[in-house]
Amino acid sequence: MRGAERAFACCACSMAIFDYGADSMVLSIYRTKRECGAAAAAFGAGRIRAALEKKGLCRIVIATGASQFDMLDCLVHEPGIDWSRVSMFHLDEYVGLPESHPASFRKYIKERFVAKLPCPLGEANYVEGDAGDVAGAIAALGRHLQDAEVDVCFIGIGENGHIAFNDPPADFDTEEPYIVVNLDQACRRQQLGEGWFKTMDDVPSQAVSMTVRQIMKSRCIVNTVPDARKAEAMRMTFEDTLGPEHPAAIIRLHADCRTFCDADAAAKLSKITKELCAK
């Protein structure tokens, strides 16, 4: 993990309103959610193809939630990927929630990603939040995850600025690949607001989450953040102080991170930020 923030400069993009970044992290802003998701999928697919060409195998992490609908719908249709040589892990899962529940992230990934691929995945690794021994299950999954480097990690940002389920104040120190976390009220309200649960009492209070350091170990991070309700989180990510109170801000230190958002999600970015992009 880098110890200082990178400088930013502008680069051109034909589809985007503007790009913001340097040789590592780049922010691309699009007019619609669909353009945002399609661009994120195309970029991530390019990194998957590159890994397959170089190594013959590729390891990815898939995110869930409403913000990933368009990206995943486009990713499964990207040409030229031999998915049988791709190993998939996912970011997080609720503790105690069965896979049959509509809000289960395992159910989400299987239905919205795995089932729509043109050929079976080489390997699909899921977080079993309802395992009889959750600690043992995530320890075994974590050991397997750390067998080799993750090539592409697809993530989003929560309304409270979380990445995965690392709500503020996030644990920036643990080297464990997965941990059990307590979900804050803002995070739980988001899950209710997106329609995954009928009442606030139905939203679990705990989840298994890939940790901040584990996410940052990925060779490439593809961050997809559409929707006006993510505007404050985007502002925090790009403009607030870097620390546990603003978990997603850590991606500013990643060597190869690209964020894709729509104009609504970028609405609270400062004039200074936008002027910097326009140069």
Structure description:
The protein is built from 8 helices and 11 strands. Residues 1-15 have low confidence and may be disordered. It has 279 residues and is of the alpha/beta class. Strands 1-2-11-10-7-3-4-6 form an 8-stranded mixed sheet. It has helices at 33-55, 69-75, 105-112, 134-145, 185-193, 212-216, 231-239, 271-278, and strands at 18-21, 26-30, 58-62, 86-90, 92-94, 123-125, 152-155, 178-182, 206-210, 220-225, 257-262. The protein has one domain (18-278): Rossmann fold. Strand 10, helix 7 and strand 11 (257-262) form a beta-alpha-beta unit. The radius of gyration is 18 Å and the shape is globular. Helix 1 crosses helix 2.
SSE series: EEHEHEEHEHEEHEHEHEH
Binned, the helix content reads 25-40%
Please give the radius of gyration in angstroms.
18 Å
- Which strand order does the major sheet show? 1-2-11-10-7-3-4-6
Helix-strand blueprint:
Elements: E1 18-21, E2 26-30, H1 33-55, E3 58-62, H2 69-75, E4 86-90, E5 92-94, H3 105-112, E6 123-125, H4 134-145, E7 152-155, E8 178-182, H5 185-193, E9 206-210, H6 212-216, E10 220-225, H7 231-239, E11 257-262, H8 271-278
Parallel strand pairs: 2-11, 3-4, 3-7, 4-6, 7-10, 10-11
Antiparallel strand pairs: 1-2, 5-9, 8-9
Give a quick rundown of the structure.
With 279 residues, this protein is an alpha/beta fold. It has helices spanning 33-55, 69-75, 105-112, 134-145, 185-193, 212-216, 231-239, 271-278, and strands at residues 18-21, 26-30, 58-62, 86-90, 92-94, 123-125, 152-155, 178-182, 206-210, 220-225, 257-262.
